[in-house]
TrEMBL record, chain A:
This is Ferredoxin-NADP reductase. GO terms for molecular function: 2 iron, 2 sulfur cluster binding; metal ion binding; oxidoreductase activity. Its cofactor is FAD. InterPro entries: 2Fe-2S_ferredoxin-like_sf, 2Fe-2S_ferredoxin-type, Beta-grasp_dom_sf, Cbr1-like_FAD-bd_dom, FAD-bd_FR_type, Flavoprot_Pyr_Nucl_cyt_Rdtase, FNR_nucleotide-bd, MRET. The keyword Metal-binding applies. It comes from the Bacteria. It comes from Pseudonocardia thermophila.
Automatic annotation (TrEMBL), chain B:
This is Linoleoyl-CoA desaturase. It comes from the Bacteria. It holds the Pfam family FA_desaturase. It comes from Pseudonocardia thermophila. Residues 90-357 form the Fatty acid desaturase domain. One of its GO terms (biological process) is lipid biosynthetic process. GO terms for cellular component: membrane. One of its GO terms (molecular function) is oxidoreductase activity, acting on paired donors, with oxidation of a pair of donors resulting in the reduction of molecular oxygen to two molecules of water. Coiled coil: none annotated.
């Protein structure tokens, strides 16, 4: 394998002399975008309508299927009116599936999610980034598992459950999944989860908030009395995650609660007056408005910046702070040490800043 | 605002020669305009720019992808055919395809992508910060001298090094030196090696000699040039000829040489027609002081000249046939220049500003005539 890789690298180097100044990969990507390694693409081969506002996109990746761990998310790039837009979505297929599935819920007013969930036909080419995320089971997986998925928050959990059902079904016997949404028909993967539950002995606790109200700490502890003894994975709206964090901090072991946030906590413009942001590698200078993220300001000025989750989770977007100060829009933390890494998506400029990107 | 004065007192030097008929307005400069009118021109052009930039979309993205795909098909198709270059029909076909490919690469794709015209797509593969072209000068060096120096200081004598590219006397105000006597020959030579001329020009030996460039920067630029140049030469004159086999080596090398020459002569002609045909104007450095947006636009329009022709011609010139529009809006996607040209021309006509345009042979002849005249002292 090592020898093969070395040979193929040598072949690429020689081919590169013939295609320079572009790469052999660029030539392949021009013929068929799916052949590009440097800019991986995937084609949508199937659409599954899960609920009225949620669609699973089944993607056939190009030359290399990106490897993921169940629970991780992946960046999807979609071209809308000529412009590439990137968003991250949880992977809802299993690692050994040749296809890659992501499940997208249309967010009200969301440009990309709306387009992906409702108006992207089979055959569309999208770009895919490397899978990432920390919302994954430890190895070996825990015996006592509690999962809480609310709304589209069920999607990373579905990735985990599906994989366990196929590989280690015995671990789901005795596991609990609290599945919350507004009504029965809003429950994403409802039927599939019932099937897995029947097959494995996983206890499924549907929670319909239109009937029973929002899932509270009391409701959860009533439904799962031994919650504190379990390793818990929770994903859903910020309010629910805050409630759970508080419960675990109050009467449980905060270490045993793993959460994944889809929506960043509210941002604050306080103490973020904005300023002139210079990206030193590209030489592009942007004017950042008060409360605006460095990434948003840079993209508006035409800079090509690495981006992933756009909410301060995945660290795809980090750049070195060369000078100036930035403030985390979520926490209010000030970063002004030169040469430290900062995430451009969630940090705003406090005066003039230089970022190495 | 302090500008109004500049517009009226710094009257640009009239360069209109006898027998020039391409003006659409009688005026030879912008002297007749009031500061308010100049400001109004700026507003109208700004509005035009906003309108076009807001309307960019899928069609534009498809256009540039199609041009790039065409260029790559021509280049690698042409090179494949040239593997059999020892057969004359293959030689002709391959050389033609490769010549067109090199012209497309440099003009409609490279020059325009490096201006950031396509950055709005946020496509890392078609972006001014990642693009590299089939040209002796590294993209980064070109962006520095061209995008910033030439486009900012267009036709300012002493600031815009593109005025004669430091080797030709193209305005009478430039000091005459005996070397100018042979400048018709210099120009011919430059046209043949234009790619290398630009690369040397981008190394800014004049600035090095004047001690204006830090040594570290000078070294880094020289290293980048050497790397790029070696790979370019190796590709065209060693690797592909070698692939053609011992009997095809020379034929393929000759074909690549001709394709490079065709590209050089063509791009030289197009580029020289952009700023040098009479009666384009040049300006004094003092004009820059307090120059307003409107005055900047007027300088760009009076300092540039267009070429008339059909759609294919425009693409082959990289839409530099719309030099006037390009100089007003350097980062506007080039496929849109044709669409806005009538509007820019109408604005010029309404304000009595010259809109210099004509067919390539006619404009190029004017350039050659000027170079010949200015080989001798004086000139007007």
């Amino acid at each position: 394998m090592g020898a093969l890789a070395a040979i193929s690298r040598r072949v690429r180097d020689v081919a590169g002399l013939l295609t320079q100044p572009i790469l052999p990969d660029d030539v392949l990507g021009t013929i068929n975008p799916l052949w590009s390694r440097s800019e991986p693409h995937a084609r949508i081969v199937e659409l599954r309508r899960e609920t009225p506002d949620t669609t699973t996109l089944v993607l056939r990746p190009g030359r290399r299927r990106p490897r993921h761990v169940p629970g991780q998310f992946v960046g999807i790039g979609l071209q809308i009116d000529g412009v590439w837009h990137w968003r991250t979505y949880s992977i809802t297929s299993r690692p050994d599936d040749p296809h890659l599935a992501v499940t997208v819920t249309a967010v009200p007013g969301g440009l990309v999610s709306g387009r992906l969930a409702h108006a992207t036909p089979v055959g569309t080419l999208v770009r895919i980034g490397p899978p990432s995320g920390e919302f994954v089971l430890p190895d070996p997986p825990p015996e006592q598992l509690l999962m809480v998925g609310a709304g589209s928050g069920i999607t990373p959990i579905m990735g985990i459950v599906q994989d366990l059902a196929a590989r280690r079904p015995e671990l789901l016997d005795g596991a609990v999944l609290v599945h919350a949404d507004r009504t029965e028909r809003d429950l994403i993967f409802g039927a599939e989860l019932r099937r897995i539950s029947a097959a494995t002995g996983m206890r499924l606790v549907p929670w319909l908030s239109a009937r029973a109200g929002r899932l509270s700490a009391e409701a959860l502890t009533d439904a799962v009395p031994d919650w504190a003894a379990r390793l818990t994975y929770a994903c859903g709206p910020a309010g629910l995650l805050d409630t759970l964090t508080e419960l675990w901090e109050r009467s449980g072991d905060p270490e045993s609660l793993r959460i994944e946030r889809f929506v960043p906590p509210p941002v604050s413009a306080e103490g973020v007056p904005g300023g002139r942001v210079r990206f030193t590698v590209s030489g592009i200078t942007a004017e950042a408005a008060p409360g605006q993220g460095l990434m948003a300001a840079g993209e508006a000025a035409g800079a090509l910046l690495p981006s992933g989750c756009r909410m301060g989770i995945c660290h795809t977007c980090v750049g070195v702070l060369r000078s100036g100060a930035v403030r985390d829009l979520r926490t209010g933390d000030l970063h002004d040490t030169p040469d430290q890494y900062v995430r451009t998506c969630v940090n705003g400029a406090v005066g003039d800043v230089e970022i190495e990107l | 605002m302090t500008l109004p004065k500049a517009a009226t007192t710094l009257a640009p030097i009239a360069l209109v020669g006898p027998g020039t008929h391409t003006t659409t307005a009688p005026s030879s400069s912008s002297e007749h305009l009031t500061p308010e009118q100049i400001e109004q021109i700026g507003k109208e052009l700004d509005a035009l720019r906003t309108e076009v930039m807001n309307s960019l979309g899928e069609k534009d993205a498809k256009y540039i992808r199609r041009v790039i795909a065409t260029q790559r098909a021509l280049e690698f198709g042409g090179r494949a055919v040239l593997l059999f270059a020892r057969f004359p029909p293959a030689w002709l076909l391959g050389t033609a395809a490769l010549s067109v490919a090199k012209i497309l690469d440099n003009m409609e794709i490279g020059h325009n992508v490096l201006h950031g015209q396509w950055d709005w797509m946020r496509d890392p593969k078609i972006h001014s910060t990642t693009w590299e072209w089939d040209h002796a000068t590294p993209a980064a060096a070109w962006k520095r001298t061209h995008n910033y120096e030439h486009h900012t200081f267009t036709n300012i004598r002493g600031k815009d090094r593109d005025l004669g590219y430091t080797v030709l006397r193209v305005t009478p105000e430039q000091e005459w030196k005996p070397i100018a006597l042979i400048q018709p020959l210099t120009n011919l030579g430059l046209s043949l090696i234009f790619e290398w001329g630009i690369a040397l020009y981008d190394l800014e030996f004049d600035r090095r000699a004047a001690g204006e460039m830090p040594e570290e920067e000078a070294k880094a630029q020289m290293a980048a040039f050497r790397r790029k140049a070696l790979r370019q030469i190796a590709k065209d004159f060693v690797l592909y000829p070698a692939l053609s086999g011992p009997r095809g080596f020379l034929a393929t090398a000759a074909a690549n040489l001709v394709a490079n020459l065709v590209r050089n002569v063509w791009s030289h002609a197009v580029i020289f027609c952009g700023h040098f045909p009479e009666p384009t104007e040049t300006f004094e450095e003092s004009r820059l002081e307090g120059e307003t947006r409107g005055e900047w636009y007027v300088r760009q329009m009076l300092g540039s000249a267009n070429l008339s022709g059909g759609p294919i011609f425009h693409i082959m010139t990289g839409n530099l046939s719309h030099q006037i529009e390009h100089h007003c809006f350097p980062d506007m996607p080039s496929n849109r220049y044709r669409q806005i040209a009538p509007k820019v021309r109408e604005i010029c006509a309404r304000y009595g500003l010259r809109y210099n345009t004509g067919p390539l042979p006619k404009q190029y002849f004017k350039v050659l005539k000027k170079i010949a005249r200015l080989a001798l002292p004086g000139g007007k």
